[in-house]
């Protein structure tokens, strides 16, 4: 699992490394950062020898890194043209020191340094841009916020234009200029602004990955992302902060979705109650159940309003379907709750929501069921819409055992915030929501975020693809979440939600690889779950017992 740091957390880490017990000299850290970009960038472009490299340096420490990079590229045989957008006086002491060294190396042939003073420098700058093989963006890093100001806005636009024409390779230092480190918002997100963020081919980032590198639209500006520790103490990089954000990796998930015990039985793998659907909508219901079956649930019970039952019975023999109410019953009503509550005593988890409709009795039914059941709840789609206006009370009573799985629009209704507002800080908004309501949230999207009610931690999931942007995928996910909650040995519902979201996305990636980039169905994604589990089993390291013991 990787920590995704905010700009403030990264600043804190750097400061502790330099001014705390480790006492790493600031110029040394900057040297390591610059050298890392020169080395990784060199590998990316096939070596610096004979290359013309334009290096744009801002007035903060990102710019200081640029002076170091120039020196190392020069040493590796490249020609460097450095533009500084700060004055000597504006630079930090370490940047000043590196600027001085670079200045001493300038020969106006292989190395030039221009202190940018305004439009009078533009003509030569654009000429250099038109002729360079590689552009190094050391303009702004973690210090950027808001919307790009001039002259950087026009310089970045020119760089993008040149790169889009296939003219040069663009390497960003730490962050591409114009991408917000915390939110992934970009320069032209800001109202009435057209200054675009820089589009990099490669970003070399320092110490820790940053949140904005994984959230769109910023994620689209990053290109290939490489992480370099720059010699920061590992203990500092993994240190817990108050608000922790992590990137899920396969190893985290295979650690919790462990292989089945050989002596297990169906009872070991949980009994899933799926109480959902309505008279004219059974597809979502069946896909939810199918997701649970394919994810290894021991037993799956499906309870649907009477009118929906004929369309569900026998579709999949392993799903035990029972109608609630008579044949003309289209929706659940409040009085049905007692029957479900009685049955739920044997259930490991209860799913409500997919395809449930919008009947006025629904909120009362869901509340009554929740009030008298004790098992974990997975609430999606119509169940979430039914909670509108009562969410604070509902989550206060049941949040600790509930996973909600809204997409952006559903989350907007629940939080009362406009989708555009949520998107300006996806992680921050979900973090606040979970702190306020103490409910585990799966916010579906690209990427999906999982927020733990217990710890407030946010987990970013990178599996999945655009082919999964299709109706029914979320229903399958609800079934997978339920199966993971029931999975033997998964410790918490947040862990189960992380496992399910990762698995669901990995199954979608498997389908995209086998079938094509889109057009595969939610049921095919569910069917791919066992295939992904089999792949994980193959990749899992041998345990001591499985290792050959006769040599
Ligand atoms: N010890 C450290 O703190 C280290 C920092 N390093 C580098 O330093 C960077 C952070 O340095 P800084 O905190 O100085 O920040 P930056 O260098 O990223 O930028 C700060 C400057 O950006 C300007 N700025 C902010 N928003 C702007 C906008 N919208 N339009 C135009 N200008 C804008 C500010 O006025 C400020 O002058 C990192 O990204 C990394 O590259 C590395 O050298 C490693 C060590
Ligand atoms: K940069």
Automatic annotation (TrEMBL):
It comes from the Bacteria. One of its GO terms (biological process) is nicotinamide nucleotide metabolic process. Binds 1 potassium ion per subunit. Its cofactor is K(+); Mg(2+). K(+) binds at residues 62, 137, 177. It catalyses: (6R)-NADHX = (6S)-NADHX; (6R)-NADPHX = (6S)-NADPHX; (6S)-NADHX + ADP = AMP + phosphate + NADH + H(+); (6S)-NADPHX + ADP = AMP + phosphate + NADPH + H(+). Keywords: ATP-binding, Isomerase, Lyase, Metal-binding, Multifunctional enzyme, NAD, NADP, Nucleotide-binding, Potassium. Signal peptide: none annotated. The keyword NAD applies. Residues 10-238 form the YjeF N-terminal domain. AMP binds at residues 444-448, 474. Its EC number is 4.2.1.136, 5.1.99.6. It holds the Pfam family YjeF_N. (6S)-NADPHX binds at residues 61-65, 141-147, 174, 284, 355, 407, 475. Residues 249-536 form the YjeF C-terminal domain. Homotetramer. In the N-terminal section; belongs to the NnrE/AIBP family. Catalyzes the epimerization of the S- and R-forms of NAD(P)HX, a damaged form of NAD(P)H that is a result of enzymatic or heat-dependent hydration. This is a prerequisite for the S-specific NAD(P)H-hydrate dehydratase to allow the repair of both epimers of NAD(P)HX. This is Bifunctional NAD(P)H-hydrate repair enzyme. It comes from Anaeroglobus geminatus F0357.
């Amino acid at each position: 699992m990787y920590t995704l740091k905010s700009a403030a957390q990264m600043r804190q880490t750097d400061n502790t490394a330099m001014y705390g017990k480790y006492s790493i000299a600031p110029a040394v850290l900057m040297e390591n950062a610059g050298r890392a970009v020169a080395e990784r960038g060199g590998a990316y472009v096939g070596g610096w020898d004979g290359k013309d490299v334009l290096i744009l340096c801002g007035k903060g420490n990102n710019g200081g890194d640029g002076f170091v990079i120039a020196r190392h590229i020069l040493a590796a045989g490249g020609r460097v043209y450095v533009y500084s957008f700060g004055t000597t006086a504006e630079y930090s002491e370490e940047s000043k020191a590196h600027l001085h060294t670079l200045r001493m190396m300038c020969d106006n042939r292989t190395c030039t340094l221009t202190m940018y003073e305004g439009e009078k420098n533009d003509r030569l700058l654009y000429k250099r841009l038109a002729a360079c093989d590689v552009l190094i963006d050391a303009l702004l890093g973690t210090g950027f916020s808001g919307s790009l100001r001039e002259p950087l806005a026009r310089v970045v636009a020119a760089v993008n234009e040149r790169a889009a024409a296939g003219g040069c390779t663009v390497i960003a230092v730490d962050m591409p200029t114009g991408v917000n480190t915390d939110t992934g918002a970009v320069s032209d997100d800001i109202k009435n602004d057209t200054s675009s963020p820089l589009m990099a081919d490669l970003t070399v980032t320092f110490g820790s990955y940053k949140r904005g590198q994984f959230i769109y639209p910023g994620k689209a500006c990053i290109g290939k992302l490489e992480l370099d520790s720059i010699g920061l103490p590992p203990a500092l990089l993994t240190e817990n902060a108050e608000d922790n954000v992590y990137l899920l990796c396969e190893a985290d998930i295979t650690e919790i979705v462990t292989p089945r015990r050989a002596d297990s039985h169906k009872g070991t793998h949980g009994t899933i109650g799926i109480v959902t659907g309505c008279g004219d909508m059974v597809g979502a219901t069946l896909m939810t159940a199918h997701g649970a079956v394919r994810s290894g649930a021991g037993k799956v019970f499906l309870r649907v309003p009477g009118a929906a039952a004929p369309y569900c019975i026998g579709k999949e023999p392993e799903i035990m379907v029972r109608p609630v109410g008579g044949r003309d019953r289209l929706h659940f009503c409040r009085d049905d709750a007692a029957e479900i509550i009685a049955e739920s005593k044997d259930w490991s988890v209860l799913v409500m929501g997919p395809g449930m409709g919008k009947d006025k009795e629904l909120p009362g039914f869901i509340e009554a069921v929740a009030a008298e059941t004790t098992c974990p709840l997975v609430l999606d789609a119509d169940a979430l819409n039914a909670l509108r206006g009562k969410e604070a009370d509902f989550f206060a009573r049941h949040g600790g055992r509930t996973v909600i799985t809204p997409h952006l629009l559903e989350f907007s209704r629940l939080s009362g915030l406009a989708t555009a507002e949520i998107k300006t800080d996806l992680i921050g908004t979900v973090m606040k929501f979970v702190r306020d309501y103490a409910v585990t949230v799966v916010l579906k999207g690209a990427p999906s975020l999982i927020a733990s009610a217990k710890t407030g931690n946010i987990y970013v999931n990178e599996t999945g693809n655009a082919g999964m942007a299709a109706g029914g995928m979320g229903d399958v996910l609800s079934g997978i979440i339920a199966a993971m909650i029931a999975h033997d040995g998964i410790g918490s519902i947040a862990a189960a939600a992380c496992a399910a979201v990762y698995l669901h996305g990995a199954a979608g990636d498997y389908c995209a690889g086998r079938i094509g980039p889109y057009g595969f169905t939610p049921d095919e994604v569910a069917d791919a779950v066992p295939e992904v589990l089999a792949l994980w089993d193959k990749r899992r390291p041998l345990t001591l017992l499985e290792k050959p013991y006769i040599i």
